[in-house]
Amino acid sequence: MxxxxxxxxxxxxxxxxxxxxxxxxxxxxxxxxxxxxGIVGLIGCAMGYSRNDPRLVEELDKNLRxxxxxxxPGEISKDFHTINGVLPTAEGKFKGxxxxxxxxxxxxxxxxxxxFLVAIEGPGQLLYKIRDAxxxxxxxxxxxxxxCPPTRPIFETITQDYGSIDDVLAKYPWSSxxxxxxxxxPEELKCIVEDHNGPYMRTDRVQKSPVRMYGIRNVRIFKxxxxxxxxxxxxxxx
Length: 238
Fold this sequence. Notes:
It contains five helices and 13 strands. By secondary structure, it is of the alpha+beta class. The strands form three sheets. Strands 10-1-9-4-11-13-12 form a seven-stranded antiparallel β-sheet, sandwiched between helices. Strands 2, 3, 5 and 8 form a four-stranded mixed β-sheet that branches. It is globular, with a radius of gyration of 19 Å. The model has no long low-confidence stretch (mean pLDDT 88).
């Protein structure tokens, strides 16, 4: 029995995920791992917080610190879209008309068949509130975009067996939902941990902004030896 503070653990797995860093208008990119704004948005969706709800910043972004372990990086793919009609512009005007619609081209990026472990630190009462929301979400939750549903329940566990996020990432059993990936058990795993003194910056922190610009946070990026494999079921891609 330990008395470590609780840490919430999520698993993000699905055929497609997309965690935009510069996504605006017809540019819809994805980072290589979930962004903090994406994780906060996912949690806010489960808790029924709308996009402009100040609790996204004041309650979630400011109080939660996250670490991510890339269980399987997947592959980034690009999807070609055309959008036709009377379309809004960045200047607040419109292009096209009912009789002469306009067309724009939009490239959408996705991560295919990726798997991420997310460890979250924060006030215990808030973490248990998030757990309850994950088990009975107010709105459907998705992996960065509404077209990217998860293939398993996102909530993994809430635990007091680990002393820190780094401890979770180093010791919590590795897993992936596809049998093909499990057969290629990795030797090392990449980790990204939010840290005020970290040498790397991520522009993915939720902040109040009328143009939906994101704030900067510092992170550490490092690799660890893969821990033992979790004994659970897997799915063939065939």
